[in-house]
Design goal:
Number of strands: 11
Strand content: over 45%
Radius of gyration: 16 Å
Largest sheet: 7 strands, antiparallel
Structural class: mainly beta
Oligomer: single chain
Number of helices: 1
Order of helices and strands: EEEEEEEEEEHE
Length: 154
């Protein structure tokens, strides 16, 4: 089956008027996921911060699932839910990904650009990952969700 992950953006209004923006965000489309293998899709994007190059990112979603004693992000198809994982890197050339937990601000990230739309040079990468061990027994279907990404200067 196919999986679609749509993304949505929330940009907080910062009191000190530092401009922080996210640009070049794309939708995430999984094609023909094989339950026997982990599957991931990553896209680059732009984080702009005119104040300095540091920021934190928080990801949230209305759809969640309990996996053991943890709460994970989930996509849904009818009543079926599929857990997924979100990873962020503040580099695109040699990305080192940090897993983001729902609603928990990331460690400090660097490399934000002062340029509008980062001068067309993306400076961050977002990966969505499905784990084989979490897909066993999941009903085939078209799974969708939306993810809200908030960036804040630090």
């Amino acid at each position: 089956g196919m999986l679609t992950v749509s993304t949505a953006i929330a940009a907080p209004l910062i009191a000190n008027l530092a401009t922080i923006q996210v640009a070049h965000l794309q939708d995430y489309q999984f094609d023909g996921v094989d339950l026997n293998y982990d599957s991931s899709v990553e896209h680059t994007l732009c984080v702009r911060n005119t104040g300095n190059s540091s920021y934190q990112v928080t990801v949230t979603s209305a759809e969640m699932i309990a996996v053991g004693n943890q709460t994970k992000f989930a996509m849904s198809s009818g009543r079926s839910k599929l857990p997924y994982h979100v990873f962020w890197s503040d580099s695109v050339k040699a990305p080192i990904y940090t897993e983001l937990q729902p609603g928990v601000p990331s460690p400090p990230m660097q490399n934000a650009s002062a340029l509008v739309e980062c001068g067309d040079n993306d400076n961050a990468s977002l990966e969505i990952k499905l784990l084989s061990r979490e897909m066993q027994g999941i009903t085939a279907g078209q799974y969708t969700t939306s993810l809200e990404i908030t960036v804040a200067p630090i």
